[in-house]
Amino acid sequence: MKPSRPLFLVALTVVFVVVTWAVLHTAYVSLPPLPWTAVPTLLLLALGEAFTGWNVLRRIRRKPDKRHAPDTGRKGPKPLEPMAVARLAALGKASAHSAAVIAGVFGGFAVNLVSQLDKPTPRHDFFVSGGTFLAAVVLVAAAFFLEYACRVPKGPDDEEHDHRASRA
């Protein structure tokens, strides 16, 4: 599995912005008002993924926890199972792609509604869609961090090999 590429996620978001804008151009009138509950949900997911990423990064790099006294003899946190790290990397990748789609859909809502801010319901939906778009972008960032945290750090042999390969 290869890491997520930021350019692909931006392209995915833009495609969904355009598709949503085109669909809403004709169908917005028949939709109910947007619920605000997606904003805290996405932010809680982002918080969970960022915390998990921080914990995974600390455990993979074997950084000791500051809560443990240095004289306890512990060298660092317990290592993670490789399969657990692979699952977390897959979660990060799936979350990044899903959040990019969500950002695109709600970005399309916001773009469509920017011309109707003088009416109360479209104005409410504009702010809800803008907040949801921003929360989805935060989730993409947290998912990227989780993916980054799941990478195996390079050892001294890997760095020497990379240096020789770049010279060739």
Task: Please provide a written account of the structure.
This protein has one domain. The chain has helices spanning 6-27, 38-60, 82-113, 120-149, 156-167. It is an all-alpha fold. The mean pLDDT is 86. The chain is built from 5 helices and no strands. The longest helix is centred in the middle third of the chain and has 32 residues, at 82-113.
DSSP strand tally:
0
Q: Can you tell me the residue ranges where pLDDT is under 50 for at least 5 consecutive residues?
A: none
In total, the number of domains comes to 1
- Alpha-carbon distance between the two ends: 27 Å
Based on CA inertia axes, which overall geometry fits?
elongated
Work out the helix count: 5
Spatial extent as radius of gyration: 21 Å
SS-based class? mainly alpha
